[in-house]
Amino acid sequence: MNEPDIKTNLEKIRTTLGPSTRLIAVSKTKPVEMLQEAYDAGQRLFGENKALEMRDKHEVLPKDIEWHFIGHLQTNKVKYIAPFVRMIHSIDSLQLLQTVEKEAVKHDRTIDCLLQFHIATEETKFGLDLDEARALLQSDEYKALSHIRLCGVMGMATNTDNKNLVRSEFANLKSIFLTLKKEFFADCSHFCELSMGMSHDYPIAIEEGATLVRVGSSIFGAREKH
Ligand SMILES: *Cc1c(COP(=O)(O)O)cnc(C)c1O
Q1: Residue 223 falls within a domain, yes or no?
Q2: What is the pTM for the complete model shown?
Q3: Least buried of 128, 171, 206, 225, by fewest C-beta within 10 Å?
């Protein structure tokens, strides 16, 4: 496989972003040299889906990088990223949120989080539905948390060439976002993030209102399956 031209790829994607969408470069499985190349091309937001991999990359790369955790997060791994992670996109349970709180307290930080929703037709994707999110947000346990800040929602569309299906799933996530905003976060200006869109569908996500797109292979090249 040819080496990807990371700088050119980033520039190409950046021209498609509107003023209200930011690009997260998803660098999972890729070596730090490639992240450094993206950094040198001006990229500051990076996404990873393994806690230890993120910690190791954070240790050696410039400290003004914003690290976004986008994968399924096991509670026993939160401690590795709690000291520095900028945002956790994949909150899918109260228990995980409580663990993030506990680790955030240890580091005297407030950690920004997104609630992950199941919007795809596929069975395999993680995430909450609207009623589960409501139950979480109404619980006394949630209300007791003081070191996490919910900033919005995240979702993954079905992996398909059916653009209408993908578009309707993104529209559904936006409507979930607006519902939660109205019911629970009306006075919170920080509840403003809609994280959706990957390499094959980010242009649709931008049209449907994404504020954060998570793009990997279109920047760094295809990943080895592992
Ligand atoms: C890997 C991953 C991405 C990026 O996928 P690409 O198809 O390589 O752009 C985005 N979001 C999540 C949650 C991922 O795990």
Answers
A1: no
A2: 0.97
A3: 225
